[in-house]
Amino acid sequence: MKSVVFSQFTSFLTLIEPALTKSNIKFLRLDGTMAQKARAAVLNEFQEANQFTILLLSLRAGGVGLNLTTAKRVYMMDPWWSFAIEAQAIDRVHRMGQEDEVKVYRFIVEQSVEERMLKVQERKKFLATSLGMMSDEEKKHQRIEDIKALLDYEVTSH
């Protein structure tokens, strides 16, 4: 079963590679450092060749305009500020032509900045869908509140 692993950090994708190699999992990688011709070759190989089951994909390089319907699993390794960016990335797999159910997995550590980012995403999604358009001043205030929410956490000892 083919899977796409998204991260906004290419350095994180680099950290994943040795574990996949050690486990004899065939993978490909696509990120923003690659020329357009190389990107096209990677995408074609992932879509056509059965031996590659994982595509490591940087969120910025793979968020828009790709068709990855041969994959059935999406792994979001770290949250992005905007739920819309993540939704676009997931839609690369879950789009017209996809015949199977797509499972999406998010890796969120409890009491971490990632967990707070997820809450910021949820709040932004709520605001976007139920409150409509905000003024520039309201948007500025909301961005400040988002940053405060990320930095406001309790340090607990175990």
From TrEMBL:
Pfam families cross-referenced by the UniProt entry: Helicase_C (PF00271)
Helicase C-terminal domain residues: 1-142
TM annotation in the entry: none
Any one GO molecular function term: ATP binding
CDD domains: SF2_C_SNF
Any one GO cellular component localisation term in the record: nucleus
Keyword entries, A-Z: ATP-binding, Hydrolase, Nucleotide-binding
Gene Ontology biological process terms in this record: DNA repair
Record's protein name: Helicase C-terminal domain-containing protein
Organism in which the protein naturally occurs: Verticillium longisporum
Organism ancestry: Eukaryota, Fungi, Dikarya, Ascomycota, Pezizomycotina
